[in-house]
Design brief:
The structure is a homodimer of 387-residue chains.
Chain A lengths: L1 E2 L3 E3 L4 H5 L5 H4 E3 H4 L9 E2 L2 E5 L4 E4 L4 E3 L3 E3 L3 E3 L17 H20 L11 E5 L3 H17 L13 E6 L10 H13 L2 E5 L3 E5 L2 E4 L2 E4 L2 E4 L3 E3 L16 E2 L5 E2 L2 E6 L4 E2 L1 E2 L2 E2 L4 H20 L12 E7 L2 E6 L2 E4 L1 H14 L3 H17 L16
Parallel strand pairs in A: 1-4, 8-20, 10-11, 10-16, 11-12, 18-21
Antiparallel strand pairs in A: 2-3, 5-6, 6-7, 9-17, 13-14, 14-15, 19-20, 22-23, 24-25, 25-26
Chain lengths: 387, 387
């Protein structure tokens, strides 16, 4: 197991680290600890910089080469800016713990800057938060920022009124949560608006800079911009010898192997898999099911049996909007409101990797829910309050 | 309340963040939240860069000037390198959350580097940890690193044996914990050595660089060096108009005010106070008692009454060495071993600032104690495994 991080990260809850609700260690566990009891597994903290499917080896950042019998590529995706990498400095995305801490820092600092500003007019932009992209991450992040501004921060400032904050969610399509049934998109939009989020549909971003964003319907002055709009697969996908799609993902066969290289598998965000004419979505359950399938395929090889075909079973999808508020599907059922929210947190707890994570996340949530506060409201990092 | 951090930090437990036992948010709470209900208190996130005791105002980093009727300076100290600031890059100290995360990163990365090294001889230095300074922070840090190496990491590596790690604690004097009774210093030394720490007394450091440390008794090749040896008071101490001592602390009168400026008080690490011929130590209880005294002095002024004289009551001191192991005094009693360890954690829990911190620290400790694991074993920060 080679990873350039020492920890497994439960990405579905990363937005909660970014919005001060959870600690990094609640949703990230050391890989070495997870695999400690599996004595035939070795864990290496290293970055793979090259895959050579013909020589059947990978190269590490320090030049070392590791041969393999089978390669399972699960290197995921990072956020992408449609060719405008210069936007990243002004609009961080949410893929790593460091990303989340930077977003947390910016969101919390914005209120502190506004409280400090001598002239309230100077702080108008500080209290405007723009989230770009109306998928689950964008919806959940916008909802959480609205809760911080309108609930957590009540009575905590003297010069500003946090209720004056503007939380704007921009989505290019005509509805949010595009992969969900349309009725749920409408319900989610209403729940977001009830929470105070200014949801703008059919709006595309044309520029991002230090002053805010420019969009197809005008400029928005904003102190904080968060990017939840595009993904690009890990560059290793292109080195597997397989074809890649527009998002840089390698196209895999029915057994999740790369065309021409049956000893190379790709799963999760880095792969483009198609089952019964439907694309497997780049979400956790696709990766989890993919991992289990690859193990079966390798065992079949070793037993001399034919490999099974990957079957993706969509168990449903859920996105939370805020306190007691969520939408989603579970099997044939469409849920919204309180019942969806109960399902959302129960399912996320179940999929956290160990008992300790489950317990600590539950306790943090209970605390946040009961007190309206946030567990991890720390601004850390270099001292630069004006940036 | 002006602070360049948004959080109050419970410094006595910072070494536990550095050694992966606690999360930053367990021991750091937002100042704004702590003072939310005190409606006559305003919290500003800002750095004070100048104190002008004659004009009775302070200047902030952005040039703003704030006038005051009373100034209470409690800006603490940072680590100092005896005039060798260039050592800091190779031997971080432990004063802020960022310091602690950097130390955690270095300690955990050292084992990962050793596991990766192709040639075991290359990794000899990686698994050597040097802690400079045998005060409470140095003792507690060395003990915690020994526990990680010799207990937490059992069975988690394949190429290296974490039991081969060397944890070396250097102290220039002839005993550790110099402010404690000598019998307790001896007991602490024995407990540290039982834990596997290589304690070297009477050894001074003459140089620190990327290869390790040079000392009065020879060079030590070490991948990780941690500095717990010297403090220097905040530079604001020198701007109060009072005299400063060798550590840069401002010398205060019997009422904790600065000579010639009865409207300027200094408390905690930034002040040098003397009570009945004894210096008030730069520990938490000195700062806490100082703060309460200053409040009384200001109330006395407002009532037209004479200010009380500061009385420091030393309630005792405790340092933990490891699992079920500590030394210290409480009033007239000298404690060591299990009973001191029980007292140590109970007292630290009592002084944590709110119920949430108390609960989360207790739960983390219980978990770590029962499983021999560490709650927050994350390597975060920029990707640079070879540094």
């Amino acid at each position: 197991m080679i990873d350039r991080r020492n920890h497994h990260l439960f990405q579905p809850l990363l937005y909660q680290v970014a919005t001060a609700g959870l600690n990094p260690s609640n949703i990230a566990r050391p890989i070495r600890g997870i695999l400690a009891k599996q004595s035939n597994a070795r864990v290496l903290l290293a970055e793979v910089v090259k895959v050579d499917p013909d020589a059947r080896q990978v190269s590490l950042d320090d030049g070392a080469e590791l041969p393999y019998d089978y390669l399972v590529l699960a290197t995921g995706a990072s956020h992408a800016y449609f060719g405008h990498d210069e936007w990243e400095a002004h609009a961080p995305g949410l893929k790593t713990i460091e990303d989340a801490l930077e977003v947390r820092r910016r969101v919390l600092l914005a209120f502190e800057r506004a409280e400090r500003a001598a002239d309230p007019d100077d702080s108008a932009g500080d209290l405007t938060f723009v989230v770009v992209g109306g998928g689950p991450t964008g919806v959940e992040t916008a909802g959480a920022i609205a809760e911080i501004a309108f609930k957590t921060f009540t009575r905590q400032f003297r010069a500003i009124d946090p209720n004056q904050a503007k939380v704007i969610l921009l989505e290019g399509a005509d509805r949010i949560l595009g992969t969900y049934p349309e009725s749920l998109s409408l319900k989610a939009a209403r729940q977001l608006r009830d929470l105070g989020v200014d949801l703008r549909l059919g709006v595309t971003v044309t520029n991002v800079d230090a002053d805010g964003v420019e969009t197809s319907t005008g400029a928005i002055r904003a102190g904080t911009v968060i990017w939840a709009a595009g993904n690009r697969a890990s560059p290793l996908a292109a080195m597997t010898g397989g074809q890649t799609d527009r998002a840089g993902r390698v196209i895999v066969a029915a057994d999740l192997s790369v065309s021409g290289h049956p000893d190379v598998f790709a799963i999760g965000d880095v792969a483009h898999a198609t089952v019964d004419g439907h694309d497997v979505p780049g979400v956790a359950q696709g990766a989890i099911q993919g991992g289990a399938h690859v193990a079966k395929a390798i065992r079949a090889d070793l037993a001399g049996a034919p490999r099974p075909t990957f079957r993706y079973r969509n168990k449903g999808e859920l996105a939370t909007i805020g306190r007691s508020s969520a939408v989603g599907t579970i099997g044939p059922f469409r849920l919204s409101g309180w019942i969806a929210w109960m399902a959302w947190w129960s399912i996320h707890i179940v999929f956290l990797i160990d008992f300790r994570s489950k317990l600590s996340v539950l306790l943090n949530w209970a605390w946040n829910y009961l007190t309206f506060q946030r567990s991890a409201r720390l601004i850390t990092g270099p001292w630069r309050p004006r940036s």
